[in-house]
């Protein structure tokens, strides 16, 4: 029976075989990888991944799709975690002592940013992540300082990951077609991210980008004095979108030591 995509789950199923093979080549799954796919949907990518993997974990919220997966796959090869990826404990997936988790998926656009932050909490346990996301979101993730798209998402993710936009996927590759272009992003956790408290950095970055058109001194008034900014090596007259990640980290560390 044909599955009707559900808007509340943000379901757009990738059907273009050429794009699917391009994604699999980018991921390059190896037999012994410990891999989890978020939102397997109708299993188009799942089937291709299982051609290389001994076993695959999937996280799926839609109960109808969970039943379909249970019916169509060997339970020893496909380990199904029924539930919300935003609530799922990815650290619960066992990995061997010398291995790390690989995470892939066509992420629902309506939860992509919260899910990326949820996954960032366990970045030290992850080898890499390959995601299909709205192209606009990926552009914000990889944006460099000085870009109009550089903002809170850029800083918080670039502090933890090296990221690369691999290629763009047009709406016609999906059923139903979304209203926007998509893109594939590769995310590799940094071996040694700059030392910083994540919550404090988020606090600083959120305040800094709350008023993008103002100079940084005005954006963070009440949190930092002009001398605080200067002592941290930050130009008080700069605009938030021109401040590199390492300077935001310096400000967060200054706030933490008060």
Automatic annotation (TrEMBL):
S-adenosyl-L-methionine binds at residues 12, 14, 39, 60, 84, 106. Its EC number is 2.1.1.182. It catalyses: adenosine(1518)/adenosine(1519) in 16S rRNA + 4 S-adenosyl-L-methionine = N(6)-dimethyladenosine(1518)/N(6)-dimethyladenosine(1519) in 16S rRNA + 4 S-adenosyl-L-homocysteine + 4 H(+). GO terms for cellular component: cytosol. It is an enzyme of class 2 (transferase). GO terms for molecular function: 16S rRNA (adenine(1518)-N(6)/adenine(1519)-N(6))-dimethyltransferase activity; RNA binding. Keywords: Cytoplasm, Methyltransferase, RNA-binding, rRNA processing, S-adenosyl-L-methionine, Transferase. It is found in: Cytoplasm. Residues 19-191 form the Ribosomal RNA adenine methylase transferase N-terminal domain. Gene3D superfamilies: Ribosomal RNA adenine dimethylase-like, domain 2, Vaccinia Virus protein VP39. It holds the Pfam family RrnaAD. PROSITE patterns: RRNA_A_DIMETH, SAM_RNA_A_N6_MT. Belongs to the class I-like SAM-binding methyltransferase superfamily. rRNA adenine N(6)-methyltransferase family. RsmA subfamily. PANTHER family: DIMETHYLADENOSINE TRANSFERASE, DIMETHYLADENOSINE TRANSFERASE-RELATED. NCBIfam families: ksgA. Specifically dimethylates two adjacent adenosines (A1518 and A1519) in the loop of a conserved hairpin near the 3'-end of 16S rRNA in the 30S particle. May play a critical role in biogenesis of 30S subunits. This is Ribosomal RNA small subunit methyltransferase A. It comes from Noviherbaspirillum cavernae.
């Amino acid at each position: 029976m044909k599955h009707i995509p559900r808007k509340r789950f943000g379901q757009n199923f990738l059907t273009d075989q050429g794009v699917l093979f391009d994604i699999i080549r980018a991921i390059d799954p190896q037999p012994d990888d410990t891999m989890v796919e978020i939102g397997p949907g109708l299993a188009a990518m799942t089937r291709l991944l299982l051609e290389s993997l001994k076993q695959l974990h999937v996280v799926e919220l839609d109960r109808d799709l969970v039943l379909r997966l249970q019916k169509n796959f060997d339970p020893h090869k496909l380990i199904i975690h029924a539930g919300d990826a935003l609530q799922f404990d990815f650290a619960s997936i066992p990995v061997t002592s010398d291995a790390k988790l690989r995470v892939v998926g066509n992420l629902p656009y309506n939860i992509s940013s919260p899910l990326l932050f949820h996954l960032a909490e366990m970045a030290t346990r992850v080898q890499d992540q390959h995601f299909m996301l709205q192209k606009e979101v990926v552009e914000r993730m990889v944006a460099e300082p000085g870009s109009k798209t550089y903002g809170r998402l850029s800083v918080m993710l670039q502090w933890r990951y090296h990221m690369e936009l691999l290629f763009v996927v047009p709406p016609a590759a999906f059923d139903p077609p979304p209203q926007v272009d998509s893109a594939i992003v590769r995310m590799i956790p940094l071996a040694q991210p700059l030392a910083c408290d994540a919550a404090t950095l988020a606090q600083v970055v959120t305040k800094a980008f709350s008023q993008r058109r103002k100079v940084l001194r005005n954006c963070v008034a009440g949190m930092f004095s002009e001398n605080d900014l200067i002592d941290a090596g930050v130009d008080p007259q700069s605009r938030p979108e021109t401040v590199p990640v390492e300077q935001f980290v310096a400000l967060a560390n200054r706030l933490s030591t008060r």
